[in-house]
Amino acid sequence: MPVDDSRAPVSVWEKLKVMSGVVASIIIPLVIGLTGYWYNNALKEREIQIRYVELAASILRDTPKESNKELRFWAARVIEHYSPVQLSEGALKELITINIYFGKKEIEKAADEIIRQTFEPGTPPLKQQKDSDTHSEKP
């Protein structure tokens, strides 16, 4: 019987084309899945940070007493940790020793600022941004 040689040999480029399709069909879903996982973890982490700030603010709303001094110190450190602008030692001491009211509006504003700084790194805090916007306008 005669051998059928009607098929031409497959070039290297054709083999690479087939292999790249297979590799892409595996890698693309993997990259999309990992990106979604990391993004979701970042959102969860920010939600936890917001809850810590809310807890710290609620502790600092209470009247300062000797019995809650250590707890107020912890709360002030939490506020300092998540603040885009670090507190001075004097401001930290005031948070611990003076009764400061944080309303729900202020807490939500602080939480929004944390989220904004997370997803838009390098942008100045809102107060600094507003100040620079007013200085850039011509009279």
Explain the overall architecture.
- There is one protein chain.
- The chain has 139 residues and is mostly helical.
- It has a domain at 24-119.
- It contains 5 helices and no strands.
- The chain is rod-shaped and about 95 Å long.
- It starts with 11 loop residues before the first helix and ends with a helix.
Write the layout of secondary structure elements.
Elements: H1 12-61, H2 69-82, H3 89-97, H4 104-119, H5 126-136
Envelope shape: rod-shaped
Counting helices, strands and paired strands, the structural category is: mainly alpha
Largest sheet: none
Q: Estimate what percentage of residues fall within beta strands.
A: under 5%
Mean pLDDT across all amino acids: 79
Oligomeric nature of the chains: single chain
Rg over CA atoms, rounded to whole Å, is 28 Å
Poorly predicted runs of 5 or more residues = 129-139
Give the termini separation.
96 Å
Total strands:
0
Helix proportion range: over 70%
In N-to-C order, the SSE pattern is: HHHHH
What's the total helix number?
A: 5
